[in-house]
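Batch manifest, entry 17 of 40.
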Amino acid sequence: MANTKPKINLAFRPKGYFWPLDLKTHVVSSIKGAERKALVEKLFAEGREAEIHPEILQPALTDELRKFSGAIHPSLMGGEYLPDRETEEVEIARITIASTTQDVTCVYAGRGKDRIGYRVVDEYDGDTLSGEADCSSKLPLTLGELTTYFLTAWDLLAVLDMNFEGEGYPRESVYGFFEATSEFYPDFGKLVRHRVEEWLQEKRSSLDEDDE
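Output type: structure tokens
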């Protein structure tokens, strides 16, 4: 694959994260569970909002429903153990990995008196975070700022390295192992994939040198 940089506007900055939000953005960004979020997005995309059961739309499942979902398949627990959002706080980006339990890491943004506060959260009380998890800004972050902040607080590349080091970093498998999404930054997933591609090329180049 050629090392061509995709057309991404790193300076893109959303107008805001808080009200007024359109119905889809408000509903989807509030759902913690990865599978529930994906289902709701699909139904919205197909114009089938009327079919969405109210229980699926809840930001968090009850403990009983979480245990029931996990008993069906561990992947159904993905995202369900994220911390609850505070008042005036929204999820602005997430990365989901194809682990057994489909672990999710997110960025939450909260409205303060004169600044926006951000925190990166995982499903393990911060145990998977390796960098500064909190920051703030006067204006919403640009796409470039958000992505750098997210990947510094939670090192996706280290996760990929841990899972694919012994396999020679097969591109298809690496890309199939994670999904980066945002209701506020349309090119977030594309930029994360680009940064992974740059990392992959370095890794594969290093492997080729070792073979020589």
